[in-house]
Amino acid sequence: MKKNILLAVSAALIMIFSGSLMAQPPQTPPQGRPGGFPGGAPQGAPQQQGVRTPPSRLGGTQQPNGQEAPRMTAEMTEFYDPEPPVVTPGSFDAKNQNWGAPSDAIILFDGTNLDEWESVRGGEAGWDVANGVLTVNKRAGDIRTKREFGDFQMHFEWCVPEGIQGSGQSRGNSGLKIGGYEIQVLDGYNNPTYVNGMVGSVYKQTIPLANPSRPNGEWQYYDLIFTAPTFNKLGQYKTKPRVTLIYNGVLVLNDVEIIGTTSYIGIPPVDQNSTFKLLLQAHGDPSEPISFRNIWIREL
Ligand code: MG
């Protein structure tokens, strides 16, 4: 009898206890999606409504296989090295209305001398320096840097003389030659010519995206970024040279692939160099020579 009373009391207690549990409101699922990622699980991850993965001591989640899945934090994707070098930008020159070279640039022409240059024919660069300006001497031929460069950023300014005569390729023709690759410099103001040879072109290869030329007598500028080619064991291009050109603030060549050494006639051949002297062209046309100033380069 005693035993029956005890069993009845136990059963009643169990019913009361389980009833109180049943009466509790269902647990609210965690905000966001489960998975331990900020804002919930990544897109596409399976979701289990109402199933809660217990947080671990490290703030991650315990996976069914017992492995720890660390919780991503903002700091995990914030890096502090390598720190980029500090470069002081060039200062504005009110007289010339232009910007000077940044602090890490190699100055190729600052208006005073041609120490960084030589004649392609041998000996000293025979161009004229006066009043802070370098002017082409057509009789002296092309000049080139004494140094060689691979990947680089370059800036230079140039001016076609006011009232220049001639037309097409025979009016203010010069050029920047990166080894054998010519980026055309030419009077492009009301001076039609073949468009893959106009100012801003990779000569005889790539038409510029725009023609932002200024009139004769006004200074213009090129900002150029060059990526040197690489080669396979056979001496073929593995990656071709590439160039970006901003002309008077306007993008005219957008990471363009150069297909080979500039050729006036024929298919451009492969130039197997990966560093280059930089040439300024003394073109043989009879028009008045153009001038340059503020030439600098940053090795990349
Ligand atoms: Mg030229």
Explain what you see.
It is a single chain. This protein has 300 residues and is mostly beta strands. The protein has a domain at 104-299: Exo-inulinase, domain 1 (Jelly Rolls), CATH 2.60.120. Helix content is 7%, strand content 27%. The protein has 1 helix and 19 strands. It has one helix at 2-23, and strands at 61-62, 68-69, 92-93, 98-99, 106-109, 117-119, 128-130, 133-135, 143-145, 152-159, 174-178, 181-185, 219-227, 230-231, 237-239, 242-247, 250-257, 278-280, 291-299. Strands 5, 7, 8, 10, 13, 16, 17 and 19 form an 8-stranded antiparallel β-sheet that branches. β11 (174-178) and β12 form a beta hairpin. 25% of the residues are buried. Mean pLDDT is 86; it is low at 5-9 and 11-48. Bound molecules: magnesium ion (MG). Magnesium ion binds next to β11 and β12. Magnesium ion binds at residues 173-175, 182, 184, 281, 283.
